[in-house]
Design goal:
The complex is a heterodimer of chains A (285) and B (678).
Chain A (H helix, E strand, L loop, with lengths): L4 H14 L3 E2 L14 H4 L8 E10 L15 E10 L5 H11 L9 E10 L4 E10 L2 E12 L2 E2 L5 E6 H9 L8 E3 L2 E2 H19 L2 H20 L3 H21 L4 H27 L3
Parallel strand pairs in A: 1-2
Antiparallel strand pairs in A: 2-3, 3-8, 4-5, 5-6, 6-7, 6-8, 9-10
Helix pairs in contact in A: 6-7, 6-8, 7-8
Chain B lengths: L5 E10 L4 H21 L4 E9 L2 E9 L6 E8 H4 E2 L2 E2 L1 H10 L7 E5 L2 E9 L5 H15 L19 E8 L2 E2 L3 E2 L2 E4 L1 E3 L8 E3 L6 H7 L6 H18 L3 E2 L3 H8 L5 E7 L9 H12 L2 E4 L5 E10 L5 H27 L14 E3 L3 E2 H14 L8 H13 L7 H5 L6 H9 L4 H8 L15 H20 L13 H14 L8 H11 L4 H19 L5 H8 L8 H11 L3 H19 L11 H15 L5 H21 L7 H18 L9
Parallel strand pairs in B: 9-12
Antiparallel strand pairs in B: 1-3, 1-9, 2-3, 4-8, 5-6, 7-8, 9-10, 11-12, 13-14, 15-17, 16-18, 17-18, 19-20
Helix pairs in contact in B: 1-4, 6-7, 8-9, 10-15, 11-14, 11-15, 13-14, 14-15, 15-16, 15-17, 15-18, 16-18, 17-18, 19-20, 21-23, 21-24, 22-23, 22-24
The chains are: A alpha+beta (285), B alpha+beta (678).
């Protein structure tokens, strides 16, 4: 029986490695979701097959709760799997991954509940489900239809496990804070103070003017680099801009209308990055 | 007539979990299209059924072994072209070759004055197994999808990825390809108990195989099983299940083999307001609440797992844990909210944007309050009522800044009312807050208290003129702010409660437009929208033309029923048709007139017309029978007037005054309806 976050991560890595998936490491920048990692964003584009799995710490400034809410976090961890093209038996593969964690499907109720996923800031959308384990959402299961405004052909499937939720369910505790990362080290030991600081920063201490200026600078730099066809450095500036946007959003520094405009600017950059990538990878193929 | 021999026929399309709200619609249209295609292909069938689970669309029927015979009439050349001097021409010979007939087998028929040769050609009669594969492929590829997607490397589109196609006809397995899969003999059980593939070789074995795989293919039976077992479980717990029909339908389409179970939660949670408990259970978790005999919630729920499975205890514990976490959150927020009285939250509404172009909720409250001040004299309120209404205006949006509403947005209004009660606000105030969205859906009730109804009218009038004034409108395809629903709510409150008294909706909208510094043209546009919504609501019971005729006049819509009933009572009378003629004639002339003037000294027949028209206009507004009696006197005078008088007199003054008189009489006749619509 798995009992720590470490166990869950190692078990999922082992399971998917056996299934022929490349086990990668987290991307070393602030991301809002595992989807934004170049290992997903770029690889979902174009025709080449791809199978990867990795843990991605994901920052959602608006979800910060100063470490006081049992389940809501400024940063949580996703285990993300991309299978391209999506295999016919992908649901069975997914269910067996849960079994590898000790979740016998006969002893639990595993349900696929409609969820249409969309991430407008990178022009991505897909159809699929939330996966419910005995009434609790533990995963997102999405067939990508579009990435950066481009049709996905072939279609990748993205499986995203919420590691904190899954572990707290497996351990049988009600809140993430009592989960152990490793034996003797609780989630609170690792992240309690950090969550408080990050929430304080996002909601109170962040300087909206600085965020706005940084967004503008990062956007400009992203454009310049993408024009030089330096797709990765250009994309990384997009990621920085995106994080500034998320922080401004949490800080309450943007109105509904401004929000739309910022999302549009990010989407433009994502589109440009995708074009550069596709041109490079399909040229001379 | 030869006896038709039928074979059992099964199409099972295996799909990854179809969103529950689409299962029924897809299953129905699949069966409809299959039936249509069978008819078109002359394959007789009986006992056709549409069956479904979240993972399969199933069409089951008994289908004839072969197509019905059909002799198709083919038109050949005209007789005069087919024969020249008694000899057959190449045109005829070509036709005979094409239809494989001799000249003696042809018939003649005159079509459009010309005689033609006709051949009766027997269409080939093909066995079902030759026709069905292609038919199934065509139906599946054409089946309309509410929202389709692609998957894997293929180009097929469907609601969710298609994984198998079972196609059985009697003892045969039919081969075809559709939506990226090849048909075969494989199906699958439910994911919990029998995830592996299973074979079905004969159509007649299909249903029993599915039962052995623990798949109930008939949604009605799944629904019945959930209700039967769920009710028994609730009874053991000393309660009855709150069977919400929509939720029951949804759950029916979320499972292939329902196993209901009873869960409980700590009794303490029952202190949380009922709407919060209900929303947590029904909306967030798809659980059915359980009530005692008096209708109060008890600390239990009925949930349904997919499949038979083992160890229901683990599933129960898991679900209880999830609900407990949700309810703990809700209780925490609820307790936090109770620390601040609702009234103290009003200033925070400055920071809540209604819409970028329309300012904050604080701005909205100020507008609604001044609209009330402007129209204060309209409303049947005593001093206490007016105070309560003003209090409600200041409080009705305050729960937007409470924790519970930010977690449960669907409870806006409901929570405000609960907090208002706890703060000792008057019942009028509580109910006005609670009913602010009523009526919100078809058959929903209108607010029952005058204060609530008035707030409902003021709020909606302001919303509509403000959005329209800012250029945000409901169009045929787009209505992101639900303005149509707002308009219908306004129309229904105006028509179904007495609070508008003698005032019209048009007048209310004009006041609201002026109050919001929006042009009167906008008020007129909104008036059209509201009138249209009202018509669509009443059209189920009354003819469209009558509604148009009546609603062409501004009047208090509380009288709408009276006016329509008046039409129903009189529209077949002789007076009605002569009044209609007179009115239309008068209006035609009055409409064409450019310069008119109602004089004050008409004589003779003109004087009489003026007097009769005055009489019809002077009858009090609500006295339709009195007006009708005056019309009875007026109509013959109109006739005599037109016989005796030339309206377009050469003298401009006379002409102007006669046109003025015609308009006056037209107004008298058209006081309650626009006759043009009748």
């Amino acid at each position: 029986m798995t009992t720590t976050i470490e166990d869950v991560i190692l078990t999922l890595k082992g399971y998917w490695r056996q299934a022929g998936v490349l086990v990668a490491e987290p991307y070393d920048m602030e991301l809002g979701a595992g989807t934004m990692s170049p290992l997903t964003f770029f690889r979902a584009l174009g025709p080449d097959p791809w199978r990867v799995g990795y843990v991605q710490p994901s920052r959602r400034p608006v979800d910060g709760r100063y470490g006081e809410n049992p389940n809501r976090l400024y940063q949580h961890h996703q285990f993300q799997v991309i299978l391209k093209p999506a295999p016919d038996d992908v649901i069975e593969l997914y269910l067996k991954s849960l079994e590898s964690l000790g979740l016998d499907r006969k002893k639990h109720d595993i349900r696929f509940v409609e969820d249409n996923w969309e991430q407008p800031s990178i022009g991505a959308s897909g159809l699929g489900w939330e996966v419910w384990l005995d009434g609790m959402e533990i995963s997102q299961f999405t067939y990508f239809q579009q990435m950066a405004g481009q049709e996905c052909r072939p279609v990748s499937v993205e499986l995203t496990y919420g590691i904190e939720r899954l572990t707290s369910y497996l351990v049988g505790v009600e809140d993430v804070w009592s989960v152990e990362w490793a034996p003797g080290v609780s989630y609170r030991d690792l992240y309690g103070r950090v969550e408080w600081e990050q929430a304080t920063y996002s909601f109170e201490a962040a300087d909206p003017d600085v965020l706005r200026q940084l967004f503008d600078v990062y956007e400009k730099e992203a454009k310049r680099l993408l024009d030089l066809r330096l797709e990765r450095p250009g994309y990384e500036y997009l990621l920085k801009a995106s994080h500034m946007f998320n922080t401004m959003d949490a800080r309450g520094a943007i109105s509904v209308v401004q929000r739309q405009a910022y999302v549009g600017r990010l989407r433009q950059l994502a589109r440009r990055a995708a074009e550069v990538y596709v041109e490079r990878t399909t040229a001379g193929a | 007539m030869p006896e038709i021999i039928f074979e059992p026929f099964i199409v099972e399309v295996g799909v990854e979990e179809i969103p529950s709200r689409y299962v029924e619609q897809l299953s129905e249209s699949f069966a409809q299209m299959m039936k249509g295609a069978l008819e078109q292909e002359r394959l007789a069938f009986q006992h056709a059924r549409a069956l479904s689970t979240p993972r399969r669309l199933i069409f089951s029927a008994e289908v004839a072994r072969s197509q019905e015979a059909l002799v198709e009439t083919v038109r050949g050349p005209a007789v005069e072209v087919a024969y020249r001097e008694g000899k057959s021409t190449p045109a005829l010979e070509g036709f005979l070759r094409r239809v494989k007939k001799t000249a003696e087998e042809l018939q003649r028929e005159t079509i459009g004055g010309k005689e033609y040769l006709l051949a009766g050609v027997e269409k080939p009669v093909r066995p079902g197994e030759d026709v069905l594969p292609k038919l199934v492929t065509e139906v599946l590829e054409m089946l309309p999808q509410p929202r389709s997607m692609r998957w894997g490397s293929g180009d097929a589109r469907f609601i969710r990825p298609v994984r198998w196609l079972l196609l059985l006809y009697g003892d045969q397995v039919l081969k075809t390809e559709a939506l990226g899969v090849s048909s075969g003999i494989l199906t699958y059980g439910n994911r919990t108990d029998h995830p592996e593939a299973a074979q079905v070789l004969k159509a007649r074995d299909y249903e029993s195989t599915m039962v052995s795989l623990l798949v109930e293919i008939n949604p009605d039976r799944r629904r019945a099983a959930i209700q039967e077992v769920g009710s028994a479980l609730a009874q053991e717990a000393g309660g009855v299940v709150d069977w919400d029909a929509d939720l029951l339908n949804e759950v029916t389409h979320l499972v292939e083999w329902p196993t209901p179970f009873l869960g409980t939660f700590e009794q303490d949670f029952l202190q949380i307001p009922e709407p919060v408990l209900i929303t947590s259970m029904k909306v967030h978790q798809r659980y059915f609440p359980v009530r005692d005999r008096q209708g109060a919630l008890i600390h239990a729920f009925v949930a349904v797992r997919n499949g038979k499975g083992e160890a229901l205890d683990l599933v129960r514990r898991g679900n209880e844990k999830v609900l407990r976490a949700r309810l703990s959150d809700a209780r925490y927020f609820y307790q936090l909210d109770q620390k601040v009285p609702l009234a103290d939250r009003e200033r925070k509404l400055h920071g809540v944007t209604l819409h970028a172009k329309l300012g904050s909720y604080a701005d909205k409250i100020a507008r609604v309050e001044s609209l009330f001040e402007r129209t204060r004299a309209w409303w049947p309120l005593d001093e206490v009522g007016a105070q309560n209404l003003k209090r409600a205006i200041h409080l009705y949006k305050c729960d937007l800044v409470t924790q519970v509403v930010s977690e449960f947005p669907e409870l806006q209004g409901e929570m405000g009312a609960i907090y208002a009660q706890q703060n000792g606000e008057a019942l009028d105030v509580q109910e006005a807050i609670r009913d602010q969205y009523r009526p919100g859906f078809p058959k929903d009730r209108v607010p029952s208290r005058p204060v609530a109804a008035i707030l409902g009218l003021l709020d909606r009038a302001d919303t509509l003129v403000s959005f329209y004034g800012a250029g945000i409108r409901a169009t045929g395809s787009e209505d992101p702010f639900g303005l149509r629903r707002v308009a219908l709510g306004l129309a229904r409150i105006a028509a179904e409660t007495p609070v508008m008294g003698s005032h019209s909706v048009d007048a209310l909208l004009e006041a609201a437009a002026d109050n919001a510094s929006v042009s009167p043209q906008v008020a007129a546009l909104v008036g059209q929208l509201v009138t249209q919504r009202l018509m669509s609501e009443w059209e189920a019971e009354w003819p469209h033309e009558w509604l148009e005729a009546v609603l062409a006049r501004p009047f208090p819509w509380t009288k709408l029923g009276d006016r329509l009933r008046f039409l129903a009572d009189h529209h077949q009378s002789a007076l009605f048709s002569s009044a209609a003629q007179a009115a239309k004639r008068l209006e035609r002339i009055a409409r064409g007139a450019d310069e008119t003037e109602l004089g004050n000294a008409y004589s003779g027949i003109e004087g009489e017309l003026k007097a009769k028209a005055d009489a019809a206009l002077e009858v009090s507004e609500d006295d339709l029978p009195g007006w009708w009696a005056a019309v009875e006197n007026l109509v013959p005078v109109v006739e005599q007037f037109f016989q005796a008088v030339l309206v377009m007199d050469p003298n401009p003054t006379v002409r102007r005054q006669r046109l003025g008189l015609v308009g006056h009489a037209a107004r008298a006749l058209g006081r309650y309806f626009d006759w043009d619509d009748l």
